[in-house]
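A brief tutorial aside. Many learners find it easier to grasp structure tokens once they have seen a single protein encoded end to end. The record that follows does exactly this for Actin/actin-like protein. Read the sequence first, then the structure, and try to relate runs of similar tokens to stretches of the chain.
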Amino acid sequence: MGTYGGDEVAALVLSVGHTWTQAGYAGEDTPKSIFPTSVGWVDLPAEADQGDDADNSEDTQMQDVTQDGASASDSNHIGKKDADGGDVAPQPVGAGVVPSKKKITKRGKYYVGDGEISCWRPDMEIKSPMKDGLVEDWDALEQIWDHAFLKRLRCDPTEHPLIITESAWNTREIREKLTELAFEKYNFPAFFVAKDAVMTAFAAGRPHALVVDSGGDMTSVVPVYDGYVLRKGIMRQSLGGDVLSDQVLQQFKANDVEVTPQYLIAKKSPVIVGQKPNVVLRDRPATPSFHKMMQMRVLHDFKESVCQVAESTYNEQNINTRPQKPYELPDGYNFNFGAERFKVPEIMFNPKEFLKNPTPEQENFVGLPKLIFNSAQSCDIDFRPTLFGNVVLTGGNTLFPGFADRLHWELNSIPHSYKVKLHAPGNTVERKCGSWLGGSIMASLGTFHQLWISRKEYDETGSSIVNKKCV
């Protein structure tokens, strides 16, 4: 329980990442709900209507069509559901709409949550509202918030303060828009935006830290000193779990192995190791984005089950002496994986050698130890010993067996005079949900009540107050 306005209240804590969204109550040690950030969207046929006589059903999104094709948007449509259980696209308020003008009615449904987006639908597109740690699709983000508050936590937003986490490089415009969303649409009584790196350091019990966060779409290194982000030391690159999964997919294709997701499999029979699968497939046409998502789930499970990081510099001769691990794909194909299972996570440490068919952007990737070293070296020389002594690991991509030991070995191999200490929580949930856990701890402190942005302050100052109170 946190303190707000002198009363004990349960503040809500929300962390929206590229791959997973975590939601729960302050003061608890794990999120109440963790679900995919990606949402499904199904377009329905557009219809023409005449102004106010239009059929304005719950699964309809009205868009005013102008000469340049621009359309209005809206955020005042909480919790509406269609007959099939899908979340409804937001409806514009109609500012500047001439009732007698013909409009185009764009119909569509949102699907949010693991069960909804995993269910095969022929025309469902999958998209994430986040890219490079920043909000890219606001309509999809609202659906995530609706799902978290109304379906998962089943709470009334007007009765709880809200704290959310953000990337250390978030923009002023996005922060202000998040503040508007919290107060204007959901009517939260109080709101706060916290840097995810600061919250991760807070969860680890450290006021100073070099926070290494490796997730689905990117890896970042953020120096934190005295609870503040040192912006000049922020280093990031788009090398994360998605790139590793794509490399596994390329590896399978090079060996003439097709990764068939579960939704396509009707029946399969056992086969011996290395043989082609004996499988009967369903006729289920799907969008490329849905098929890719389901393939990535198989590859994610492969990485978790099989892959491992070598404890020291990769040596093919030594790796070949390690025991192999068996793995079976959903279609029944199975194989014993040896050196291959070490090469995939090795990309994090030596991308130039192990990244196959890199894009122009990927050719500039550097190994994680070098990224960490560059981040620390970009900070004031007086801060460096403290930062090297408090390297904190977070993110699901750091959970490969041997990852922390290898990183510690590599950092000590780089010529410098600093003592390196790594903090890597052994608990899987704590490692994946570091920023959420820090927000939960901070919002539950009695001294935190003075930091909330209240509704009164928002009404008096506007959304710009977030840049003054949440630094």
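Self-check: Residues 1-7, 48-81, 88-105 have pLDDT under 50 and may be disordered. If you spotted this yourself, you are ready for the next section.
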